[in-house]
Amino acid sequence: MKGIGASPGIEKGKVFVIKDWQPMLANNKTENTNAEISRLERALNKSTTELDNIFTKVKREIGDKEAAIFEAHIMIIEDPELIRQVKIKINEEKMSAEYALKTVRDIYLEMFKNMDNAYMRERAADIKDVTDRIIRNLTGMEKKDLLVIEEKAVIAAKDLSPSDTVQMDKEKIIGILTDDGGAASHVAIMARTLEIPAVVGLGNITEQLRTGDEILMDGDEGHVFIKPDKDIIKEYMKKRKMLRTLKTMYADLKGRESRTKDGYKVELSANIGTPEELPAVLRNDGEGIGLFRTEFLYMNRDRLPSEEEQFKVYKETAQKMEGKPVVIRTLDIGGDKALSYMPMPDEMNPFLGYRAIRLCLDRPDFFKSQLRALLRAGAYGNIKIMFPMISCIEELRKAKALLNEIKEDLNQRSQVFNPDMEVGMMIEVPAAAILSDVFAKEVDFFSIGTNDLIQYITAVDRGNKDIAHLYTQFHPALLRLIKQVIDNGHREGIWVGMCGEAAGDPRLIPILIGMGLDEFSMSPGTILKARWILSNLSKKEMEKKVENVLRYASAEEVCEALSFDTGVI
Question: Is the dihedral of CA 36, 37, 38, 40 positive or negative?
């Protein structure tokens, strides 16, 4: 079977199938509505206590980022509109508390599941997880702890809620398979954090498996083999051994500069969302932070973070990186990222709408707070500011004008800050790429955001599975634009980096080297592998390769041309 490779690794073993918990609730009418509301209140209080305990456990044993999931769950329980609608069902339609909650919950689930926004579709799982917990506490139907298993196994489930994932026995779970979910689902995120191989979006894997069946899974490629034959097992065990050997080889490169074999030096940095990810960056010998996504500081809470809160986070990050560059992207809210406390207009095309720098320039009150925090934190390390979603020179100039205004204010207040902080912009809109010769005169660096740039160049919604095959980082138009941006940046004496997923693709790294890219920013776990690839490349040879690749007319031709041996699989 083929699914989505959500967390890397190859594993073989017995499977443990978890059946979805589905309470059978009848619409039993009640005249004692006060008693039902009292039952609801008790169940809400008990569920909140349970989630508080889980939050504390996860924060202590795993990290703040993962614990934030349960903070969001508590906010769902405390959502006054959700509870108000449940109480209306009880009072006006004489429903039992559990049936009223299920009725309101189903309306919410249908609404979220039908959203075009992939991130919001994934949040339906949070609502189901929370309301299932409340219903269990209302009915007294305890959910059997199916995740307490006696021997090592691969878990197979329709989906795994965040509650399930964080409470399972990590010593016994060697892999995860799910019918539902995507690369951005909670189970995928948690599996990567816990370094457990996972394949999601398999459709009906739970119907095809029985507890005790032997399976082989590849979390990199998304393949699952049920009762694999000896030849398949031999092939994948050989691949697993090779991957482990390569991982050891990559680790030997810690402490070395990132250079090609003919001496071309680049910077291999990491993409992060919170300071909790810094240990992974340092463990993998990252040479900097190429993208700090600040929007995660604004999410899973009920108000904007204060200037002081932000300052502490940015300062802590800069200090822990000990002088290495930290590129911090200003707030990129909108598109697939919404804030519960900041209502956004309904838009036909939110990825093309009121988001990122457009929103920030329209709301200078909170934008200035972020810029002040960044400038102040810059006094404690090598912080660089980066503006996202710039599409015209006016936006860049307005953003820089606000930054200069804040510098003057900080000077007048005699506050410590870095007045000489580098200021750059993301190249993720085709207009910015085409005008990169103009923009290069007004910034200190570019960072190419391929995730959105591909989407805009190809007119393909990256969250739409029906046209996913058209969303490709090997599109010749993308490669030509990347080369143009790098050349334009270098002509004006600025450095050019890349922070999209393409930067960590082993097939593209050689071509990006040939194009002269200065900085690659990727997931922390990819850094040492990228360094190993670099050490086996010649920049001069790759420059010749680029000349040929840029002549191709299709992504298929590009892929074929890039299938040469880079020393990795």
Answer: positive
Q: Global pTM?
A: 0.70
d(CA 559, CA 569) in angstroms, rounded, equals: 14
Identify any residues that bridge with 327 across adjacent strands, giving them in sequence order: 384
Exposure string for 496-511, b = 16+ CB within 10 A, e = fewer: bbbbbbbbbbbbbbbb
Instruction: Give the angle subtended at the CA of 481 by the CAs of 446 and 505, to the nearest 5°.
Output: 75
H or E element in which residue 384 lies: strand 383-387
Question: How do the domains of the chain map onto residue ranges?
Answer: 4-20+145-229, 33-139, 262-561
Choosing from 73, 360, 475, 499, the catalytic residue is: 499
Class of domain 33-139 as given by CATH: mainly alpha
Output the furthest CA–CA distance in the chain (Å, rounded): 82
Catalytic residue among 73, 186, 360, 475: 186
Top CATH class, 4-20+145-229: alpha beta
The question of whether 186 is a catalytic residue gets the answer yes
Closest Cα partner for 157 from 186, 116, 120, 134? 186
pLDDT (tens place) for every residue of the chain, 569 residues total? 899 888 888 999 999 888 765 666 777 788 899 999 999 999 999 999 988 888 887 777 767 766 777 888 888 888 888 899 999 999 999 999 999 999 998 888 877 766 555 555 666 778 888 898 898 888 877 654 444 567 899 989 888 876 666 666 677 889 999 988 776 566 776 677 667 899 998 988 998 999 899 999 999 889 999 999 999 999 999 999 988 888 888 989 999 999 999 999 999 999 888 787 888 899 999 999 999 999 878 876 778 899 999 999 999 999 999 999 999 999 998 765 667 677 777 777 777 888 899 999 998 988 999 999 999 999 999 999 999 999 999 999 999 999 999 999 999 999 999 999 999 999 999 999 999 999 999 999 999 999 889 989 999 876 566 787 788 899 999 999 999 999 999 999 999 999 988 898 889 999 999 999 999 999 888 899 999 999 999 999 999 999 999 999 999 999 888 875 444 44
Cβ pair 21, 143 in contact under 8 A: yes
Length of the chain: 569
499 classed as catalytic = yes
DSSP character for 568?
A: -
Dist. CA 181–CA 187, nearest whole Å: 8
Residues 6 or more apart from 408 whose CB is under 8 A from it? none
Token representation of residue 144: 């059997």
- Neighbour tally for 87: CB within 10 Å: 18
The listed CATH number (3.40.1190.10, 3.20.20.60, 3.20.20.140, 2.40.10.10) that belongs to domain 262-561: 3.20.20.60
Contact predicate 15/154, CB 8 Å: yes
Give the list of residues 6+ apart from residue 243 with CB closer than 8 angstroms, or none.
10, 569
Distance CA 388, CA 426 (A): 5
Tell me the angle at which helices 33-61 and 124-139 cross, rounded to the nearest 10 degrees: 120
Residue 85 has which token pair?
Answer: 């609608």
